[in-house]
């Protein structure tokens, strides 16, 4: 495994873990901060690697996580916390 593929794999694992935090709404975390960091991580990941290098499952994870992040940020904004 190359260093690059290791970094991509690590980033995908972080995205998965971040989605778990957003899904269970764990109040121990700064949920808007988690959402913003996930969006940045996924942005960097998709800038660095062409879409063809991701599996269908990874693309589904990125899509699902993007939706969860946007929902979290919209909910936070509606509550007047942003």
Molecular structure report:
This protein has 82 residues and is mostly helical. Helices cover 77% and strands 0% of the residues. The chain is built from 3 helices and no strands. The longest helix is centred in the C-terminal third of the chain and has 23 residues. It starts with a helix and ends with a helix.
Order of helices and strands: HHH
Query: If helices are DSSP runs of H or I spanning 4 or more residues, what is the number of helices?
Result: 3
The main sheet comes to:
none
What's the average pLDDT?
Answer: 90
Radius of gyration: 13 Å
Helix content: over 70%
**Weakly predicted, low-confidence segments:** none
* Strand element count: 0
Q: How far apart are the termini?
A: 41 Å
- Overall shape: it is elongated
Total of domains: 1
What percentage of the residues does DSSP assign to strands (E)? under 5%
Structural class: mainly alpha
What topology does this entry show?
Elements: H1 3-24, H2 31-48, H3 56-78
Helix pairs in contact: 1-2, 1-3, 2-3
Notable traits:
single chain, 82 residues, mainly alpha, 77% helix
Quick recap:
The chain is mainly alpha-helical. It has three helices and no strands.
């Amino acid at each position: 495994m190359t260093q690059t593929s290791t970094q991509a794999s690590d980033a995908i694992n972080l995205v998965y873990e971040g989605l778990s935090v957003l899904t269970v709404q764990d109040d121990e975390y700064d949920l808007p901060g988690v959402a913003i960091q996930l969006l940045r991580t996924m942005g960097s990941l998709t800038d660095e690697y062409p879409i063809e290098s991701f599996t269908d499952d990874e693309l589904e994870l990125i899509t699902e996580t993007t939706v969860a992040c946007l929902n979290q940020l919209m909910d936070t904004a509606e509550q007047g916390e942003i």
